[in-house]
Amino acid sequence: MYLQELQLQNFRNYAAADLKLGKGINVLLGENAQGKTNLLEAIYALALTRSHRTANDHDLINWEAKTAKLAGRVVKASGTTPLELTFSRQGKRAKINHLEQARLSQYVGQLNVILFAPEDLAIVKGAPTVRRRFMDMEFGQMNPRYLYNLSQYRTLLKQRNRYLKDLQHHQQHDLLFLGVLSDQLAAYGAEIIYQRLTMLRKLEHWAQTIHAEISQHRETLAFRYATQVADKDLDDPKTICAALTALYQKQQAKELYQGTTLIGPHRDDLHFQVNDKNVQTFGSQGQQRTTALSVKLAEIDLMKAETGEYPVLLLDDVLSELDDARQTHLLTAIQDKVQTFITTTSLSGITRQLIKDPTIFHVSAGTVVADESSDQASDE
């Protein structure tokens, strides 16, 4: 899979841009605060219908405009697919092959991307919400069923939390409807937990091999999914559902008192262990960076295994955060394998030595110009 073309209209600081992209490594070269990250954000948004930097879609629209538009052509083994995404004050509209989609969930998955930025180190050392978001965004791209279950779960969770708040203001508790909501939430929550566990086992397999190579086989990486459901109940969705239902009953008084749902995948976490020690708590900065890099590179192989296509890789100023050994491993791993977009202020040093025939774009003040001397994408 690769993105053959990208068009922007009134997106962030770009009034208009039309790029022909290289199949291999594309380098976005320019000084800071010129719009390099905005281009990566555009690719990310075109894939996932949302930004990785803001929850407010209005921030994506150029302040002089009322709408922002992204378009691109995705090339897969099965053929070429035009994609289009429009942001406005009224919401967003997505088109596949010029046909508008009734639901955004039908659109996600047409273009798969993996983003790696300095803040992605927070996957390892950040708050649990960061790791939950990581699982939801990445697994949702690979598995439409996961995305559907997650959407249903979030809707029910809001409804149940609202009802728990309402019950706080009534002396007579109507627990019948609460039980109905609990049963529904448990069913979708069980599917999410089971799918997370399934995908994490696969991701762990790829990440372990990569981590061992980067650490020269001195370290062993392992994942542990942290949930209130007992390990013995994690065999299949039915046993997980039964366990969640029992936990809701056990925690009912506490949830009524606090007015919120205390059990479920929205409270779970993912722990990374290096040589049997929690790397979030006890790992060195180098171990944390190696873990984050291993997880991100493992996603490439997992997406290929799950979808049949390699994803597009977005590297936002990440090379400056890695030492020479990790830079070398990263660039060697992706060369001739996945379409990659790299933002950087300079092509000097190890980066220049390892990137073979890059397609280079010069970015300055919301304009982007292709370097005519660099290798450009073919029209195949």
UniProtKB/TrEMBL annotation:
<dbReference type="GO" id="GO:0006302">
    <property type="term" value="P:double-strand break repair"/>
</dbReference>
<dbReference type="GO" id="GO:0005737">
    <property type="term" value="C:cytoplasm"/>
</dbReference>
<keyword id="KW-0963">Cytoplasm</keyword>
<dbReference type="InterPro" id="IPR042174">
    <property type="entry name" value="RecF_2"/>
</dbReference>
<keyword id="KW-0227">DNA damage</keyword>
<dbReference type="InterPro" id="IPR003395">
    <property type="entry name" value="RecF/RecN/SMC_N"/>
</dbReference>
<keyword id="KW-0235">DNA replication</keyword>
<dbReference type="GO" id="GO:0005524">
    <property type="term" value="F:ATP binding"/>
</dbReference>
<dbReference type="GO" id="GO:0000731">
    <property type="term" value="P:DNA synthesis involved in DNA repair"/>
</dbReference>
<keyword id="KW-0234">DNA repair</keyword>
<keyword id="KW-0067">ATP-binding</keyword>
<dbReference type="GO" id="GO:0009432">
    <property type="term" value="P:SOS response"/>
</dbReference>
<dbReference type="InterPro" id="IPR018078">
    <property type="entry name" value="DNA-binding_RecF_CS"/>
</dbReference>
<keyword id="KW-0742">SOS response</keyword>
<dbReference type="InterPro" id="IPR027417">
    <property type="entry name" value="P-loop_NTPase"/>
</dbReference>
<dbReference type="GO" id="GO:0003697">
    <property type="term" value="F:single-stranded DNA binding"/>
</dbReference>
<feature type="binding site">
    <location>
        <begin position="30"/>
        <end position="37"/>
    </location>
    <ligand>
        <name>ATP</name>
    </ligand>
</feature>
<dbReference type="GO" id="GO:0006260">
    <property type="term" value="P:DNA replication"/>
</dbReference>
<dbReference type="Pfam" id="PF02463">
    <property type="entry name" value="SMC_N"/>
</dbReference>
<dbReference type="InterPro" id="IPR001238">
    <property type="entry name" value="DNA-binding_RecF"/>
</dbReference>
<keyword id="KW-0238">DNA-binding</keyword>
<keyword id="KW-0547">Nucleotide-binding</keyword>
<feature type="domain" description="RecF/RecN/SMC N-terminal">
    <location>
        <begin position="2"/>
        <end position="345"/>
    </location>
</feature>
<comment type="similarity">
    <text>Belongs to the RecF family.</text>
</comment>
<protein>
    <recommendedName>
        <fullName>DNA replication and repair protein RecF</fullName>
    </recommendedName>
</protein>
<comment type="function">
    <text>The RecF protein is involved in DNA metabolism; it is required for DNA replication and normal SOS inducibility. RecF binds preferentially to single-stranded, linear DNA. It also seems to bind ATP.</text>
</comment>
